[in-house]
Design goal:
about 230 residues, mainly alpha, 8 helices
């Protein structure tokens, strides 16, 4: 089914790519396009809830009267950092800081892991979102990459994630785990996720050339992680 909603992480990537291109080639058109997307994100997708500045995953369906459904893997911290430096009057630094604070609240289950989707209530309670499976899964695996890439991996959740991946009792690590029931995927994390684990632990990354075993998502994570490593 076609989804007419936007995805705020994709918007951040586009705005950041245009910003970097404008810097590289001194191109005003790229800079103006980046600025236009950035302003739209701030106007339509950044909101306040329970004293936090948060990024809605899309324009429609995530902000409710007394709750907000959030996905912390949408916090693409490197882009937010550049935007914060360029436009300190805009809420980018607050987004980064509150994202780190929220991440410390999203520690569920035996391994104290964030779930892909969480709900933040008006009184500041964070819990796994009811409309999604309570899993640390294909979305949340990006959190260590984006927060470590931005140098904001000081929170407890990042260490909990790598501890889960490196637990010697369960190797190779499972692709996902239900934080409520401890049910695990019957297949392992991909090479792309293994690259994120290596990056978060300051270890050598897997070969960046995609292999036959890599699906598009694994290949994308692998290349993004090498990009992060080159820019670190």
């Amino acid at each position: 089914m076609r989804d007419n909603n936007n995805a705020s992480d994709g918007d951040l990537f586009i705005a950041w790519a245009l910003y970097l291109a404008a810097e590289q080639w001194d191109n005003r058109n790229y800079a103006n396009a980046s600025s236009s997307i950035r302003r739209a994100i701030v106007d339509e997708l950044v909101t306040d809830m329970a004293g936090y500045t948060v990024l809605l995953p899309g324009i429609e369906g995530f902000k409710h009267s007394d709750t907000a459904d959030l996905n912390l893997s949408y916090w693409f911290v490197p882009a937010m950092q550049d935007f914060a430096e360029m436009a300190p009057e805009e809420p980018w630094q607050a987004l980064i800081d509150d994202g780190v604070s929220l991440l410390d609240e999203t520690t569920f289950g035996h391994y104290r892991l964030p779930t892909d989707w969480v709900t933040l209530t008006a009184d500041g309670v964070v819990s796994p979102a009811e409309e999604w499976e309570p899993r640390f899964s294909f979305d949340a695996v990006r959190i260590p990459l984006y927060f470590a890439w931005g140098g904001r991996d000081e929170g407890a959740s990042i260490g909990s994630i790598t501890a889960f991946w490196n637990d010697p009792a369960y190797q190779p690590a499972s692709a996902w785990i239900n934080v409520t029931t401890d049910e695990r995927a019957e297949y392992p994390i991909s090479r792309g996720v293994r690259a994120i684990n290596a990056f978060a632990n300051n270890q050598a990354l897997p070969d960046p050339v995609p292999k036959e075993e890599d699906d598009y998502y694994s290949a994308t994570l692998l290349l993004l992680t090498h990009m992060a490593d080159d820019m670190r």
